[in-house]
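Long-time lurker, first post. I've been practising inverse folding by hand and with some scripts of my own, and I keep getting stuck on stretches where the structure tokens seem ambiguous. Below is the full token string for one chain I'm working on. Before anyone asks, I'm not after the true native sequence, just a reasonable design that respects the backbone. If someone could post their per-position residues I'd love to compare against what I wrote down in my notebook.
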């Protein structure tokens, strides 16, 4: 007998649960650690997770199907890893698209005339509420203004790499930055479908991370 649910499109299910108690045992410079007591399946469970503001990333592709990559030091993993431009959604009231445009200009001194949503993902749903939206940026040109960079960004290395070579590096496990991995595989698959999977740059983002310190309704705790 066929399961009726099996015929429906494959999609994650949003669930509203009762949060009995919530506290913030650690407050950091960029994000916090939250501890929630939740009523679920007739039991009370406690879960700790990173309370994250969310982020955007930019998969910039030129007319020759080359991807803009940047190499940057990441202290937790002790690597200068290959990435795509990305940044936090930490400016109140700023739209994700505007944030992505800002990050491309600040990290790569580029602007793009064409913007589409390429993909979205949750970085670690068992331990963080962070979501990232990846934009496909095309019709690129140099920005009129360049930006001073400091700390980890001071020695950013920039390289243009053919999309197929980036996918090869992902599949060979030579590069492992999640935004780069997801973006490269999504772009490779979308290109094979004549980019029919893309969404407008200002498409709604219902699963976007809530602001730090807010509950699911957008109210401060």
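-- Answer (accepted) --
I ran through it position by position. Result:
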């Amino acid at each position: 007998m066929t399961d009726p649910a099996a015929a429906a499109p494959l999609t994650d299910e949003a669930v509203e649960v009762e949060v009995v108690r919530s506290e913030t045992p650690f407050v950091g410079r960029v994000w916090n650690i939250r501890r929630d007591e939740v009523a679920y399946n007739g039991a009370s469970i406690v879960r700790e997770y990173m309370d994250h503001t969310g982020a955007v990333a930019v998969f910039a592709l030129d007319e020759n199907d080359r991807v803009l990559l940047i190499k940057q030091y990441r202290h937790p993993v002790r690597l200068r890893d290959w990435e795509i431009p990305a940044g936090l959604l930490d400016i109140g009231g700023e739209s994700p698209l505007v944030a992505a445009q800002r990050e491309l200009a600040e990290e790569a001194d580029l602007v793009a005339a064409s913007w589409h949503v390429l993909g979205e993902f949750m970085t670690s749903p068992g331990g963080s509420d962070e979501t990232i939206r990846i934009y496909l940026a095309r019709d690129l040109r140099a920005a009129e203004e360049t930006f001073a960079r400091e700390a980890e960004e001071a020695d950013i290395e920039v390289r243009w790499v053919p999309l197929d070579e980036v996918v090869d590096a992902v599949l060979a496990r030579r590069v492992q930055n999640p935004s780069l991995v997801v973006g490269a595989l999504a772009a490779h698959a979308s290109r094979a479908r004549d980019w029919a999977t893309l969404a407008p740059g200002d498409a709604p983002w219902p699963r976007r991370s809530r602001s730090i310190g807010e509950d699911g309704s957008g109210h401060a705790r």
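A couple of notes from the structure itself: The longest helix spans residues 178-192. Residues 14-51 form one domain. Happy to go over any region you disagree with.
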